[in-house]
Design brief:
Elements lengths: L8 E2 L24 E8 L2 E2 L3 E4 L10 H5 L2 E3 L2 E5 L5 E4 L1 H14 L7 H14 L10 E11 L12 E11 L6 E6 L23 H9 L4 E5 L7 E4 L2 E7 L2 E4 L10 H12 L3 E4 L4 H9 L3 E8 L3 E10 L2 E4 L8 H13 L10 E4 L8
Parallel strand pairs: 1-4, 10-11, 10-17, 14-15
Antiparallel strand pairs: 2-3, 2-4, 2-9, 5-8, 6-7, 6-8, 7-19, 8-9, 11-12, 12-13, 13-14, 13-16, 16-17, 17-18
This protein binds pyridoxal-5'-phosphate.
Length: 363
């Protein structure tokens, strides 16, 4: 049976797996919802997306996504509102960012509606996979990659766009300990640090592994030119609170412009805090800590929204920040953002996109 309102063709799974999922104890990123959206690009045009059961794709070993990393992705979340409806956080902005990423890899534009309307249909169909907001959220992973059957290094001609989703728990994230490295860099001027190609992530794994082996959670990334300025933390943007000022590095081409970064900046302005988008060096970090002006540090990203950072380490220098209970800016901005995302508070910024599920369909 196909959904009458569906704009895209739907192949239903013969048997939903949702009843086998323990929503009170969700593992991260290994449990996927019943359906996925797939669209093909060939001969210079997109075919209409199809929604079908989640499962493996049949791919040739020579595709340039595998050989040369011709692949970009997005990450966003949907939350269950108090009324049982679903709220997607900033999907149109993610669709635009996906197209900035694809343009950088000489890939074609994806119609924004494939992303936004396709996602709405996918979530309408798989609405039972969206956890109650006290139990977690639905993580959404749009992926756009080349399936060109050629090992010539050139812009590709055939692509797939896939959206799959997975329910994730409302995990408590302990304050993070961060190892600032100058052994490796994540991005450099003229590179791809400001977009989300798959190829940005594999080269960071060795640094993340080293950090974990040394007892840290994440790597603090420095700029690729002078290795002096702090740019990001793991796959998060980073913020420093200095008295009544909040500092975050500017988007000058080597930093990924996160949706959470942008939303946090908007909320900080709304909270009448003084916000500075400017370079922030390791020297200034340790100076601000020793003169007592550095009171908080946090990372931002879709996975954990706002992650408090309690320790930063660079070479033989180490600093510990006040307990989260003593902080004001990070916890307040996190609470406000999560309230908007989950529909507990009105959304004056137009960030959330409502997918109406209706009383009959609520859990
Ligand atoms: C995706 C990503 C972020 C966070 O972006 P959000 O849109 O806020 O989730 C930050 N840094 C890097 C390197 C990323 O890839």
């Amino acid at each position: 049976m196909s959904t009458s309102a569906a704009r895209f063709a739907v192949q239903h799974t013969p048997q939903s797996r949702v009843s086998t999922v323990d929503f009170s104890n969700l593992p991260f990123g290994i449990c996927f919802s019943d359906h996925m959206l797939v669209a093909e690009y060939r001969d210079g045009r997109w075919d209409d997306p199809i929604i079908k059961p989640y499962g493996p794709l049949l791919l040739a070993p020579n595709i340039s996504a595998l050989q040369y990393g011709v692949s970009v992705f997005e990450g966003l979340k949907a939350h269950r509102s108090p009324s049982g409806d679903i709220l997607i956080f900033r999907p149109r902005d993610n669709a635009r960012r996906l197209n900035r990423s694809s343009a950088r890899l000489a890939m074609p534009d994806l119609p924004e509606d494939f992303f936004v309307e396709g996602l709405r249909e996918l979530l309408t169909l798989d609405h039972q996979w969206v956890p109650r907001s006290d139990q977690g959220s639905l993580y959404i992973r749009p992926t756009f990659f080349s399936v060109d059957p050629s090992i010539r290094v050139k812009p590709a001609e055939e692509y797939l766009f896939v959206i799959f989703t997975c329910p994730v728990g409302a995990y408590f994230n302990a304050p993070l300990e961060v190892l600032i490295t100058d052994d490796y860099v994540r991005a450099f001027p003229g590179g791809t640090g400001d977009v989300k190609p798959a190829g940005n992530y594999a080269p960071t794994l060795i640094a993340e592994q080293n950090a974990r082996n040394a007892g840290f959670h994440h790597v603090g990334w420095l700029d690729g030119t002078e290795r002096r300025f702090i740019e990001e933390c793991g796959v998060m943007n980073i913020f420093f609170v200095l008295g009544n000022r909040v500092v975050t590095p500017p988007l000058t081409g080597t930093i990924l412009g996160g949706m959470i970064r942008d939303s946090v900046l908007t909320l900080l302005h709304d909270m009448k805090l003084r916000v500075e988008e400017r370079k922030f060096s390791v020297d200034e970090l340790f100076q601000a800590h020793s003169d007592g002006s550095l009171t908080e540090c946090f990372g931002t990203g879709t996975a954990a929204t706002v992650s408090h950072i309690k320790r930063l380490h660079y070479k033989d220098r180490d600093l510990i920040l006040p307990d989260v209970e003593q902080r004001t800016v990070g916890p307040r901005v996190r609470e406000r953002l999560v309230s908007i995302m989950t529909g507990r508070e009105p959304d004056p910024f137009g960030w959330t996109e409502l997918v109406q599920i209706g009383a009959s369909a609520t859990l």
